[in-house]
Amino acid sequence: MQVIQFYPDYVERFSSDVLQTLLSRSFGLHPQMRAAFMKAFMRLKTKDLIPLNKAIDVAFKLHRCQDKQVRQTMRNFVVHDIKRLNKRQKMSKVNVTIQTYLSKILRDDNPTVAREAVFILIRLFKKNVWNDSRTANLIADACLAKRKKVYAPAVRFFLGQDVAAEGKDSDSESESDTVGITDQFCPLRIFLISIPSDHPLLSVVLKVGYD
């Protein structure tokens, strides 16, 4: 991997083999073997030997893996890579492309995958990589999600609370998270966003909304 860029005739095939293995066999690979392929994938992207759009797509497909370590690794990788791309100057076109992709992920049927998009948006905003209105609006869209796993971190972000779940990962949802979540809760979540973080009603509303 340290010298692959010096063999341009083999880069495309090697990259293709790594991606194909990750996408077709990663869920059944031994964790150590999967980690090795993930490391190769991340190294190839860091050296810009894999197109950005393909790398982001692969990363989010790996987010569907039941291995929490895989999801955390991919989350950190995506954040770090986007930060790296914007280190010298804002890559506006690239950022819009990724943000458009993330907006689709926010609507994914898999709440765990959608939640990862929320975490990434929040972390990039907090790191001042994407601290624009477009990013804020995407996080606001997540507040209207039907699954608590998706909307909870977004609401906490707007309330100025620490999104502790960024460092945690839970595969399960309580029954109350998945049953009875209808459009009538959308006004509640919008109301939560509008309440100042020091408002005395906040603790009461949060208790009603999240207990």
From TrEMBL:
The keyword Ribosomal protein does not apply. It is found in: Nucleus, Nucleolus. It holds the Pfam family SDA1_HEAT. Keywords: Nucleus, Protein transport, Ribosome biogenesis, Transport. Signal peptide: none annotated. Its main location: nucleus. GO terms for cellular component: nucleolus. It comes from the Eukaryota. InterPro entries: ARM-type_fold (IPR016024), Sda1 (IPR027312), SDA1_N (IPR012977). One of its GO terms (biological process) is ribosomal large subunit biogenesis. Residues 2-177 form the SDA1 N-terminal domain. Required for 60S pre-ribosomal subunits export to the cytoplasm. Belongs to the SDA1 family. This is Protein SDA1. It comes from Fasciolopsis buskii.
